[in-house]
Amino acid sequence: MKTPYFVIQEKLLAENIGGFQEALNTLWPGSILAYSVKTNSLPWILKWMDAHGVYAEVVSDEEYQLSLLSGCPADRIVFNGPVKTEEYLRKAFEGGSIINIDSRHELDFICREKPAVHGILGVRVNVDPSIFESHDVGYQEDGFRFGFGYENGELLKAIETLREVYGDIPIGLHMHVNSITRALGVYKAIARYAVKIVTDYDLTPAYIDIGGGFFGGVPGKTTPMEYIAGIREELEKAIDPAGTFLILEPGSAAVGSTVELHTSVIDVKDTAHGRIVTTDGSRIHIDPLWLKKGYMYTTDSKRPSHPRQVVCGYTCMDHDRLMVIEDKPELKAGDHIVYHRVGNYTVTFGGPFIRPFPPVYVQAGEQLELVRKQMTMDEYYRMETV
Ligand SMILES: Cc1ncc(COP(=O)(O)O)c(C=O)c1O
Questions:
Q1: Which end is more exposed in the chain, N or C (fewer Cβ atoms within 10 Å of the end residue's Cβ)?
Q2: What is the CATH topology of the domain spanning 257-381?
Q3: Predicted confidence (pLDDT) per residue in 42-67, tens digit
Q4: Which pTM was predicted?
């Protein structure tokens, strides 16, 4: 098969999602599992999630629209993010979505239009980073970007604004933070913080949305059961699981471990400084932050090892170097390298830089099914409007 291409292992997807569903059913029945669409917005995945009872968590009008197109009903969408437009806020109110108000402009819209709530309304909390260990969570100096702060009274003002419009309806609290370590302690700290807010404001929240950021499908790391048990242990101090939903929004934990990138070696050469292996993959496909130093990979080369090979991508950027491998089988043109567990922020990240996105296949049993073809240059050219 012509490389490069992604393969999604459906079995692993089912295991990752099944793990969260089982843990929620056991520890907090009636919770909502929502897939973070931005992590990989491939329509096949969105349809798969919907078919398996998973809501869509979206952060733009376009993700909202894509979720609807993929068959997810509006009342199974969690609408987050600071860039919701009034048009899509209206749609979300009418359709009964779960809406987490992030910013002032959304409150202004609500005060002006007073749209009826058919779903559930929540407020994103601007969590104080100092509640975490500094090695677990960054942004210690400038804080997080999203939501309303408890410490400076903005959260209370936001809740009071909603109460002026809607009376004393149950409101949810959205508490996602990006952590460095995905440690259980991060979630326990968020849950304790939620308890503090709920107690201080005397709230019976409609839900606590703990967000995403979990490990998933990584042997030896915290499991969904352990995360949810830890969260419950803290939340229970002020929140009755029978009266308040728990919402989880995994992205990486759902898809990260399920995706492979299959590549081929195009050329091997020695320069005065070392061995350069050029492949038809690229770091732009599998390392959106350009920070990774190594990958879980397999190759079909059975040759004796070579002391040092610099594996590079197809782009003409000199820094498109995927990894330096030492004392590993020597690679030659035509060999294959498969990168495993590369599903986070990759398959749908970026654009047609130098070459279009690789196609995507799904492996279910022995079968490989093409679920995204490669865009042709003709199709790209026809996007021009002049
Ligand atoms: C609001 C929200 N929910 C969920 C996620 C998913 O996080 P992850 O992919 O780490 O699970 C993110 C990612 O940043 C997010 O911003």
A1: C
A2: Lyase, Ornithine Decarboxylase; Chain A, domain 1 (2.40.37)
A3: 999 999 999 999 999 999 999 999 99
A4: 0.96
